Structure formats: structure tokens, C-alpha cells
Amino acid sequence: MDRIFSGIQPSGEIHIGNYVGAIRNWARLLDQYECIYCVVDYHAITVDYEVELMQRRILETATILIACGLTPEKCIVFVQSHVPEHTELAWIFNCVTPIGELERMTQFKEKARQHRQNINMGLLDYPVLQAADILIYKAGYVPVGEDQVQHVELCREIARKFNARFGETFPEPQVILSTAPRILGTDGQAKMSKSMNNAIGLLDPPSIIWEKLRTAATCPHRERRYDPGHPEHCNIYTMHIAFSKPDQLEYVEKGCRTASIGCLECKEILSKNMSEELIPIQNRVKGFNEKPEYVMEVLTSGADRARGIARQVMEEVRTKIGVKFGGLETKS
Ligand code: TYM
Predict the structure, then answer these.
(1) For position 91, what pLDDT does the model report?
(2) Alpha-carbon gap, residue 171 to 177, rounded angstroms
(3) Which of 99, 200, 252, 289 lies 20 to 30 A from 274 at CA?
(4) Active site residue 245
(5) Which ligand 1 atom minimizes the distance to the CA of 148?
(6) 138 carries an active-site annotation
(7) Averaged pLDDT in 10-residue chunks for the chain of 332 residues
(8) What is the pLDDT of residue 1?
(9) Whole-angstrom distance, CA of residue 158 vs CA of residue 165
(10) How are strands ordered across the β-sheet holding 3-8?
(11) Separation of alpha carbons 221 and 169, rounded Å
């Protein structure tokens, strides 16, 4: 079976962009692939964060993953810092990655703009650690949202550079995009994001979801109720694609184009569908919150399983780069 790796940062509220762009897709891939999913805490410390909250956030994030169906029977779920081979391999990758490649990463430029007072080495090096996350498991596929495609391309390049210098070792992983790889925020402008205050939380109750959707931006070309709209320019329609059934999609699409339905009716249908999908997940999260020791157990055994693979690959890497005593002899 081909192997998948993907990760999510424990940096606050998980939103529906994370869900439809990544997590829901991760669950859909469980039967076809051997899947490894990770809470990437070392990535989350590249920006300012509250130390006292970190542990809770790691657990909350892991709990949501499990509640979305990423159970230990079906995949490996673990925390990045529990498998130190990730950072070890990242160091080695640092030595084959040109700085120029990192400086041109869109996410680095965006984050450097947002966090001017703390443009640290980790922020620049973020994609190298991401490449190590993926390649320490020799994963061939990486399901992510559209914003991460550039990072996976760099990962492929790092694999190529390593292989060219030290011999064929790593695959060149491919991206798997979901049907909703880029969800904008309720402002209809920026990508939905924890930091932009434009997110609908995965754990938001129906009343909050409705409040956020009711006031959310719609098609910018539809100023009045009887103006025909353009669903392809409307973020609410993008969310419909992610949450609504085909017959409802057709209804809102046609209704919008012909102005036979208003934005409010369109949003009501979406709000109902979104809540219906999220409520069972929220209920499972509540159940797991009552037994945090279960989540801890899942993470501990997940890290053990992940480490079993990571250790072996690290041994191979140490041998290939010539630092392992006796390594070259075993090779010949
Ligand atoms: P993070 O936590 O920022 O995002 C987690 C996943 O959610 C997707 N995503 C979105 N998809 C659609 N629309 C949105 N508005 C939206 N916002 C976020 C992201 O694309 C991502 O798939 N760098 C990664 C974490 C990571 C990783 C890895 C991923 C670390 N190591 C190795 C894959 C493989 C990230 O963006 O996390």
C-alpha cells in the first residue's frame, strides 16, 4: 500500500478550511493508503505563542483528528516532537537546501510580513522541517490544502537534491488536493485562517455558524436581491460545494444566477448542511474530552509506531551521508 503523510499545526482553533481542505480528505483516504497523520507542534513554535496553552492545544487538535475518524485502528496519529528523527533529518536537509529557495516561499513572505517583530530562523526553515516530516516516512502522497502545494514542491526538490548527492533514497511525494482545497474566510477576501479572524470553527455550535454565515461576504457582483449572482465568484457557493448535496447545489446555483433565491436563503441551506455534518464530530469531541487519557494513549502508541519507521530511515540516511561508524562497510 502506498504511504500518506500529512500534518496540522496545534495553533488554535481548527476551522472548516482545515476540515474540508485537509482533515476530511485524510479520513476519506484511509482505506486506500497507509496513513500517518501528525500534530506538528515544532512548526507551531515558529511564531509567537502562549507556552501555557500549547499542551492543551496539542491535545485538542489530536482529539479533533480522532473525532473526524482518524482512529488508531485505521492510521497512525502522533505528535511531531515525540519523534525526534523529524528534526534530525531536517538538519541534514538544511545542508542540501539553497537559502534562496526558502526566501521565495509565499508562506514565509506572508508570515514575515505578519510577524515583523519575530522573523526567526524557524520561520524560514519551516518548509525544510515539513519536507523531513514527509520523507522520514518515505511517504509518496501528501494530502493538503492548496496553500501547501508550494511546500510539497520544495519537498520534492529536497528529495531530488539529496538523492543526487547521496544516492537514491527518497521518493518525490505528490500532492493530493481535496474537492475544496481553498476556502476563503467570512470576509470573502483572505484565505480562511486562524490568524485572520475570519474563520468558522469546527467546534462552533449551529447558532454561531449561522451568525457568521449570515453576515459573511457573498458574490461581490450581486448588490441587490434581484440582481443575478455569479456563484463562481461567491465564497458561500464554494462552501456549498464542500457541504451540500448535488441537488441542493444545483438549486442554489440556478437560483443565484436567475435571482430566484436570495443570499439569505442560500446561506440558510448552507448553514443547516454545515451544522448537520459538524454536530456528530462535535459530540464525539465532547465524549473524548471526558477521557483525555484515551487520547494520550493513542498519541503515545502512535509515536511508537511512527518511530519504528523513522529510526530505520534515519539509520539509512546516516549511512548514506557517511557519518555512521561502520556504515560504509555495511553498504559495500
Ligand atoms: P496548517 O495547520 O496551517 O493547516 C492544516 C491543513 O489545512 C489546510 N488549510 C486549508 N485548506 C483549505 N482552505 C483553507 N482556508 C485552509 N487553511 C488551511 C492546509 O493546506 C493544511 O493542509 N504546513 C502545514 C503543516 C505541515 C504539514 C507537514 C503538512 C507540517 N508538516 C507535512 C503536510 C505534510 C500546514 O499548513 O498546517
Answers:
(1) 98
(2) 19
(3) 289
(4) no
(5) 20
(6) no
(7) 97 95 98 98 96 97 98 98 98 98 97 94 98 98 98 98 98 96 95 92 98 94 86 95 97 96 96 98 98 97 98 98 80 50
(8) 86
(9) 11
(10) 76-79, 34-39, 3-8, 141-143, 174-176
(11) 52
Q: How far is the CA of 83 from the centre of ligand 1 (A)?
A: 20
- C-alpha cell of residue 293: 487519557
Question: Which atom of ligand 1 lies at the shortest distance from residue 8's CA?
Answer: 2
* Residue 138, phi-psi category: left (phi > 0), alpha (psi -120 to 50), beta (remainder): left
Return the pLDDT at 328: 65
CB 43 within 8 Å of CB 272? no
- Residue 19 is given by DSSP the state I
Residue 7 Cα to ligand 1 midpoint, Å, equals 7
The answer, yes or no, to whether any atom of ligand 1 lies below 6 A from the CB of 144, is: yes
Q: What is the DSSP string of 129-143?
A: HHHHHHHTTT-SEEE
Ligand 1 pocket member 127 (CB < 6 A): no
Regarding beta strands 174-176 and 3-8, do their DSSP bridges make them parallel or antiparallel, or are they unpaired? unpaired
Give the sign of the dihedral formed by CA 20, CA 23, CA 29, CA 31: negative
Distance from the alpha carbon of residue 42 to the mean position of ligand 1, in angstroms = 14
User: Catalytic residue at 267?
Assistant: no
Residue of 36, 135, 138, 144 to mutate, ligand 1, most atoms within 8 A of C-beta:
144
Residue nearest ligand 1's atom 36 by CA: 148
Strand boundaries in the chain, DSSP class E: 3-8, 34-39, 76-79, 141-143, 174-176
The overall pTM is greater than 0.85: yes
18 lines ligand 1 (CB under 6 A): yes
List the Cα angle 295/297/301 in 5-degree steps.
Answer: 125
All structural domains of the chain, each given as residue ranges with its CATH number in brackets, are: 3-180+291-321 (3.40.50.620), 194-287 (1.10.240.10)
